[in-house]
Amino acid sequence: MVNVTALPVAAHPYYPVEAEIVGYLANEYSTPVLLTIFIAGIVAISSLSFAVINANGAHLRTSEKSTALWFILTGCIHLFFEGYFAWNHRRMGPMQDIFGQLWKEYAYSDSRYLTSDPFVLCMETLTAFCWGPLSFLVAWYIITGHPLRHSFQSLVSIGQIYGDILYYATCCFNLYHLGLNYSRPEFYYFWGYFFFVNFIWIVIPGTLLYNSFAASADAFRALDKVSGTLERNGAAKKTL
């Protein structure tokens, strides 16, 4: 384990340039290698997860299988990748394992991940240890057809959207009100890493939240119809 108290503040390529990143070491792997490893990991997790879903939920529609796959994948990212940051936030600068280097690559778009920023740390900790396990629970509820599936799907989706909005908002506040820019000036760091990657957790959860609302509305509509039919039948029997 790295002893951060014994490490000096080192020069670094992140913004703002005056940010103090204790013990910073440049990544050993290049950006293409790190992105390839990350994508390969996503493909491997997705393939294994899809096999599990097919084995236990062959009856599900393709859209339901895709939703279950999303929750397994996002659960892995939340619990293991973001959980890694939450656990190691004080020693991210010198980390050279795969997750550490991936976080240092992403930090080109937001250096707060290397400085134990309070908001980022709290947000990521909540995301990792709350939305992570609950995402796996939702996936299992989808596969088993559990009646609480849409309740928990809505809960996790709202949490993901809310966290993303706050994440964007704090960056905008720091940039336009305080003049602090945490992203390097290259186009792909801000629009690729910071904006696009995080926007996924608004678009997909937003779609799933809409689907859950629609399913809940359909369920109550059907319940009201059945209740009305029973009441009419009961009233008819009393008149006989």
Shape: elongated
Mean pLDDT score: 92
- DSSP strand content: under 5%
Unreliable runs: none
Give the terminus-to-terminus CA distance: 82 Å
> Which radius of gyration do the C-alpha atoms yield?
23 Å
Q: Could you give the count of β-strands?
A: 0
**SS class:** mainly alpha
Number of helices: 6
Most strands sheet: none
Could you spell the SSE succession in H and E letters?
HHHHHH
Secondary structure: helix percent: over 70%
Account of the 3D structure:
The protein is an all-alpha fold and 240 residues long. It is 71% helix and 0% strand. The chain contains 6 helices and no strands. Helix 4 (118-144) packs antiparallel against helix 5. The protein starts with 30 loop residues before the first helix and ends with a helix.
What would you say about this model in short?
The protein is mostly helical and 240 residues long. The chain has six helices and no strands.
Task: Please name the defining characteristics of this protein.
6 helices, about 240 residues, about 70% helix
Helices and strands, with pairings:
Layout: H1 31-56, H2 62-88, H3 98-106, H4 118-144, H5 149-176, H6 187-239
